[in-house]
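User: I'm curious whether this sequence folds into something compact or stays loose and floppy. Could you predict its structure so I can see for myself?
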Amino acid sequence: MKLGSGCHMLLSCRIDNALPFWRRYPDHDVPLVEFSLLEIVCETASAHYGFPVEVLPREPGHFALLISGRADDLPAEIETATIVSHHLNLTLRRLLDCTLNVIFSKPFLQIVLLPEVFGRLTGLHRHRFYRERPVPLYENQLTPFCSWSTEAVLFLESEYAELIAKDSSDEEWNVWILRVRTTLEKLKPDPENAIQWLEKLAPSNFQKSSEYWSVDHDLTKPTLAGAPSLAEALGLFRDWIVQQRDREERSTRLRPEIARAVAYIHDHLESGLSQEKVAQMIQMSASHFGYLFKKELGIPYLDYVLQSRIERSKQYLGSGLYRHYELAEKVGFNSYPHFAAMFKKSTGMTLSEYKNTIKPNIMLDRKY
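Assistant: Here's the prediction. I'll summarize afterward.
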C-alpha cells in the first residue's frame, strides 16, 4: 500500500473495553487522564518513527492519528503501519494498563476529506465485536455487516426454550453458547442487532411455579451493550443463566400476596413505596401486611425496601453507567445527601470507596 507524495493516512484509535478503564478515575480526573493518554501516544509515535504525526481527539478515549508527508516519510506497507499500533499498545499497556482498538484508513490525497474519513472509521470500530481481542483492522479489508436473519436464529431460540424448560447441565448450556457464537460469527449481523437479540432472550422466566415467587426476584437482566466482543457478551449471558438457575435452586417460597408485593417493590424502587400503598395494591390492611411481610421474609417492610434500594444502587455503581448524584433519584431517595448517608450507614463505605472495591459489571438492566 504505497502512499504517494502529499498522501495522508488516518488511524482511528479507541480504548478497548473503555468502561472499566474510565471507572478507575474520579470524574474530575478524566481530562487529566485524557491529556496524559494523548501525550503518551504523540511521544511514542514520534520517538519510534520520526514522521509527522498529529493527534486529533474526538472524545475521551477516542482519537485519531494523522500521518502525513512524502512517500519516503510514511509507512509504505500495511505491515509497517501495523507496527504503529503495536508499539502504541505496548506503551499504553505498560503505563496506563489499557489497549487500543485501531482502524487504518485507506490513503487519501486531500486533507479536506479528513472529517469524512474520521467519521467513516468511527463506524467501523463495531467490527471489533467479532474479534476475541483487539487487532489492527484495515478499512479496505472490512465488509458491511449482514442484515439480521430471523430464520437463521429460530433454531437457536427453540433450543434455548427447551434448555430453560428443563434442568439443563452446564455442558448443555456451553454447547448452546458455542452454537450461538458460531452462528453469529458466520452471519456477522450488525452487533447492535446481535446484542438486542440476546437481551430479548434473557427475560424468559426460569420459575417453574406461577404460584410462588422467589425472594431473589430482583436479579437483574443482562445489559450487554458495553461488551467489547461477542465472546464476552456470551460469557456475560451465560453467567446470567447460571445466576438465575442457582437463585431458583435456593429460592424461598412466599405466600402469593407477599410475592406480588416483593415483585412490585423491585419494579418500582424509584418511586414512593409506603407500606400503606403496597398493602392497598395487594388488597390488605397495612398492619396485617406488615405482620405477614416480616413473618415471611424475616425483616420489617421498610428495612427491606431500604435494603433493596441500597442493593440496586450497588448494581448501578458496578455498571459504571451513572454518576453518583444521579443514583439517588433512580433508587427512590428524595435527596442525594440522604442517599449518600444511608449508603454509608448500610455498607460502612462511601459511594466512591465502594465503587473502588468492585469489578466492572455491565449486567444491568437499562430499564431501571
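Summary: The first strand starts at residue 7 and ends at 15. The chain has three domains: 7-141, 150-249, 256-355.
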